[in-house]
Structures are given as C-alpha cells and as structure tokens.
Amino acid sequence: MVAVEQQMRVRPGKRVPLGATWDGDGVNFALFSEHATGVELCLFDERGEQQRCMPLREVTAYVWHGYLPGLGPGQRYGYRVNGPWDPKKGLRFNAHKLLIDPYAKAIAGRVDWDAPVFGYPEGSADDLIMDERDDAAGVPKAIVIDERFDWGADRPPGIALHDSIIYELHVKGLTERHPDVPPGLRGTYAALASPPIIDYLHKLGVTAVELLPVHAFLDDKHLLEVGLRNYWGYNTIGFFAPEARYSSAGDGGGQVTEFKTMVKALHAAGLEVILDVVYNHTAEGNQLGPTLSFRGIDNTSYYRLMPDDPRYYMDYTGTGNTLNAVHPQVLQLIADSLRYWVLEMHVDGFRFDLASALAREFHDVDRLGSFFDVMHQDPVLSQVKLIAEPWDVGEGGYQVGNFPWLWSEWNGKYRDTVRSFWKGGDVAVSDLAYRLTGSSDLYQGDGRHPAASINFVTAHDGFTLEDLVSYNEKHNEANGEGNRDGTDDNISWNHGVEGPTNDPAILASRAKTKRNFLATLLVSQGVPMISHGDEIGRTQDGNNNAFCQDNDITWVDWNLNDADRELLAFTRGLTALRDRHPSLGRPGFFQGRTIRGSPVEDLAWFRPDGEPMTDQEWEEGWVRALGMRLGGAALTETNAEGEQLTDDDLFILLNGHHEPVSFTLPEDGKNGAWDVDIDTTTSEIGGGRLVHAGEPFELAARSLMLLSRC
To answer: What is the pLDDT of residue 646?
Structure first.
C-alpha cells in the first residue's frame, strides 16, 4: 500500500520515549528499527477503519519519530515498515502488513486469523514468497492513552520476602464463578479487586498475588480452530499493555485504568502484586508464524536467528522463537517494560517465565549476562521482587540454584523432593533436610538467603493438589492431542481408584496427604507459594496441562463441600501459625549453633528415639521418620531499647513411613512440655494437646506434626 500524506502535518518530534506519548497538545510517536528503509504511521477510527497513513521522516539512532498535534487519548494506530524482503537473510519487512507498536500501552481488538496476517501466502508452506495483501482489518490496533491516574496515598506494602506467602492465581480462573462477585465483573481485574475476593485473600493469610500473564497476548489459530483458547496467556504480543479480555471496561483504553484500580485496592488491603511475565518469546512463532509486530519491524534485531541459516529461529522456549535479549534495544525494551509496570502500574515484582532463555548470551546460559547486568544496576528494578523460573527447554537450560544474588527462584528441587518423600520414594534425608531449611546447598554460597527459594508443590503447570493425590496418570484428552501433551508429573499413589470416589478410606487418605503437602510447604524455610484453589480442593479432572481450557475445567468452583471447607480452614490455620512463629520464616540460614545465650542450637535433627541423627543416617534414603528442632531466641523486631527476642522453639516431626512410629522428644534442660499445633491426621489446628520430652508418643503413619514449646 502506498501511503497518502494528508493535511495533518507531522512535526519532527523526539526519539524518546519510545511508543506513543500524549503531552496534552498532541502525540509523539517513536519506533525503533535498525534495518528499515521507511516507516509509516497509520491512524484508525474506533471502528478500525484506516483514516490516513503518513511517513515518519525523522530518524535518530535508528528510532523513527514524529509528532502529531491535535491527537489525544483513544486514538488507534499501527505501523507499516518498509525494508528488504529476504527471509534467507532474516529480513522479513512487508509494508502490506500492519504492525502493533511494541511499546503500545493499550491494544484494541484481536487477530482475525482469516485475514492475511502472515507475511507469506498462508497455506503455501513457503515463507520465502511475500504476501502482498493488506491485513489491517484483521490486526489489533495500539491505542494512545492518558496515563494520569489518582493513586492517592497508594504505597507498596513493602513486605519482606522472607515474610511473604505467594498465591499464584489466574485473574479469570479465580473470579469467574464466584457467587458474591457481580456477574458483570466476574473474570476481570475489577473482580480481583472486589471486596469478596480481597476478603477471601486476606482471610487466607497470603501476602502477595502472583498473576498469570496479563500482558496482552493472543489466542493461537490452531487452538481457536478446535474450540480452545490460550487460557494461561504465555503468548505475549504487547509487553506494556494489560490484556483487555480481563477488563470489564472493554478494550478502548479503560483496561489500563481498571488494572491500576485493582493494584490500588490490593495494596490498600496489604497485598502485593507480582506479575508472571514472558520476555523470552513472542506470539509470532517460527518462520511460519504471523507478521504482527516485531518480525515486520526488525526481525534480525528482535529475535535470535540461526547463525548459519537466519531464515530460521533459535528456539529455547518451545514456542518457535526466542527474543534476542543480547541486542541492546531488546534489553532496553525489557527494562522499559518492567520499569513501566513498576512506576506507572505500581506492581511489586515479577516472576520471569523460562528465565534461563533470557540469560543466554550466545548458546550457554550466562549468569553474568547482559540481562542480569541491566537488572542489577537499575535503581528501580533492583528494588522489587525478582523471581526466576530457572529453566528453559534448551540444552543446559535447567539452572536451579544458579541465578545471581538479587534473584529468587522457583525451586523445582523442593517440589520434587517433597512429592517423593510423601509418596514414599527413596529420598535421602540430607536432601529433604536441605529443602525444609531453605536449600542452603543451592543458595547460601552466593550471598543469597532462604527467601531465594520459592517453595511449591503445585503450580499452574501440572496437577492441582487435589488431582496430584487423586490420579495416577494425566488425563489431558480435552486438549485434543491424544493425551500426549503435558509432563508425566504423576505421583502414582496406586489407590486403585482414580478421580472422584465415595470410598471413605480413600477420601480420608487423600485429605491427609493434601494436609501433609500444605503443612510441609508452610513450615519450610523459604517462601511458600500456593497455587490458587489448592486450599479448597480444586480439580481439573486430571488435566495437568490445562493451558487451553478457558472453561469449567480451570475455573474455581466456589460451591464447597464439607471437605473443601475443612481444608480451607486448615490452610488458614497454617498461614496464621507461620505468621505467629518467626522461626518458620527466618531471614538467614540456620547455623547449627547456639544463639543469643539459648541453651539449644538453632537447628538440630533427631531420630524417633530422641537421639541425634548420625552421619550415616544423613545419607540413607530409608530413614523415613525424623525430627527437626528449631532453636528459639528468634529476632522479631528492633526498637529504641534494642533487639526484642521471643522464645520460639519448635519441633517439626515427619513420618513418611506407611506405619506409625513411636517418637520421643529429647530432654534439653528447658521446659519439656510441647503444644501440638499441627497434626496432619486431623484438620484441626491446635486444640490443647500436649506431649512431653522423654515420654514416647505415637507419630501416625505418613503424617507431620508441628510442636511449639509451652
């Protein structure tokens, strides 16, 4: 299409900031493209009809820029970028294709996959041929926004990471079926900010919500063709724009205000907001994917291409492409996006999907790479919570324990060890001990603390807790891939019955196992993360890869039965206990020595007979029952008079054996009476039961107890 310059005169404008910026009188547009030969700015009305296209003639440091007076918030726009079409060299410019601004703060509309949104003739399977059909009618449009918002007295809750309890949730999944949320708000940011949901989160005792991706994303064509959707959202097309499908205000720009309103409400309730972000790849896929933004703006800059054949993409993500985090402009894009979400949207931290892919300088993962350098030296980003998913799908991508000092990590080794222990697997006691005490083997040697370990048993990716104890195999048939998709993360309980059952013995066994997992999670050092709905028995009917299920399979069912309510009360009791006992969330690692004059060590391990564990027993996986004593004198606060200490001696007892064991607590010269705060054979927290040092008592089969000194 040949651009037609209308009467509206484009002024030179500025190269910064990138994106579309309204100043009250007009809008400055700025787009980076190192290899383009021309850039056209196209304006659209609210119906998506193209009004005019005009060239941006000013180019500074590869940024094409211009200023249009008279434009304001609500204006829809896109770009057409001219340049060479030579896919064999990685050059895929095609001015027939409308492109989304990578810096768009809001995006209206969805991709129409029946439109010619591919740079080549779709169906030809030959991406070397340029498709010359205009696709503007089928491409989402960027929107100029008014960034002003009344934040009032909003402040970050500023919760120390070691005091945090993270609740991983899906905006729609948590709220879509909640009976107390107004129907018109369900599934939206406004629903998450509504009093019923905030009250639920507050009573649950969590301190932060971690939102599955809310950056603007696409539904894959192949999913829509079979009646499915990209439910999880790991398919980003706009790193600055909140996903409009979660907005009760629609996609005309109101999604930005609604998101800010949500954050403000959550902050007012003392809850932090952490975003699950996907900077490792985009929704454009491999060489056969659509041309929607980055590919048509500057393919060789934004993506990692095969060095010996740049027609193809390096794929460390399993999605077809990998964002080129080595390129200075891509690093700037990521950093600008993150800063925007902190400074303008007031979020408190980020969980980085497949973070190892961002750390790859060339092929190997480099923990001193450019991406980390940017994060560590940035005065804004270095102050927020940074959580890595420390793996990708490439060779050498599993990097648990290897991220730099400012980072926490999803601790996959914690998940695997705890699952195996309660299953009855062969787990070395030393491995279990490391996981319960903050994984010092992974994090102590590089300046980090127990809070570097984000502990979890389940997450969005995999079985729910209910399904983990109810199914021996995955059941992903609804995904349409013959149950071949998803990981084989089954627990293999071999109950003999899978899924729903009315057998009281099986139900009781499952309920206790769920309590074991939750109790272990909440008494471990590090930062516990609960997957939404696990506390009320949420099931996905055995589907452990429900990324494409935007329906009752994934939405939380708030019609709770007695067992669900019991589990919820138990979980609330666990979070309250963790808050009450500072020894369960220490800022530093245990030292195995006496502290501040206490007559006992800060950490000691015991056999069921009350004797200390031997070196041989540490390495033997068959030791299935043990006791972990956390010594008191835990620091709780500092005031003008100096440090204030509280006696917080605790005993954690675990029996992974299929039979009960007789346990005797050691006598240590202190008060020998201990309160039973948790006994996972029951859902009751506390209850006034006592055990006494030196007197044997029964530790039930496959159970956990938490004792606090009277």
So the answer is: 56
- What are the tokens at 526? 């590090």
β-strand partners of 690: 675
- The structure tokens listed for 548 are 């494409």
Q: How far apart are CA 488 and CA 467, in angstroms?
A: 13
* DSSP category for residue 446: G
Specify which residues 208 forms β-bridges with: 166, 272
Supply 330's token pair: 């891509």
SS3 of 297, please? helix
Q: Which residue, among 18, 6, 22, 25, has the nearest Cα to 69 in the 3D structure? A: 25
d(CA 610, CA 651): 12
Q: Among 101, 102, 132, 137, which Cα is nearest to 118's?
A: 132
Active site residue 389: yes
- Residue 214 in contact with residue 259, Cβ under 8 Å? yes
What pLDDT score does 640 carry? 44
Catalytic choice (210, 219, 389, 602): 389
User: Could you say which of 40, 168, 298, 353 is catalytic?
Assistant: 353
How far CA 48 is from CA of 45, 110, 336, 355, in Å, comes to: 5, 11, 28, 36
Q: Is 601 a catalytic residue?
A: no
Tokens of 551: 């329906």
Torsion, CA 489, CA 494, CA 496, CA 497, rounded to 10: -30
Residue 627, strand partner residues: 606, 653
Nearest by Cα to 706 from 669, 672, 680, 671: 680
SS3 content of the chain, % helix, strand, coil (to 5): 25, 25, 50
Q: 612: which DSSP letter? A: B
pTM over 0.90: yes
CA distance to 172, 275, 314, per residue, from 262 (Å): 14, 13, 37
Domains, the chain, in order of start with CATH, read 19-143 (2.60.40.10), 589-709 (2.60.40.1180)
Output the DSSP codes for 138-190: GS-EEE--------TT-------GGG--EEEE-HHHHHTT-TTS-TTTTTSHH
Mean pLDDT by 10 residues, the chain (710 residues): 52 97 98 98 95 97 98 98 98 98 98 97 88 98 98 97 98 98 98 98 98 98 97 98 97 97 98 97 97 98 97 94 93 97 98 86 62 92 95 80 91 95 87 95 91 97 95 94 83 67 94 98 98 98 97 98 98 97 92 56 92 83 86 51 61 96 92 95 92 97 96
Classify 31 as helix, strand or coil. strand
DSSP state of 303: B
Type and span of the H or E element at 193: none
Q: Which of 617, 627, 621, 618 is nearest to 654 (CA)?
A: 627
Instruction: Write out the H or E segment, with its range, that includes residue 63.
Output: strand 63-69
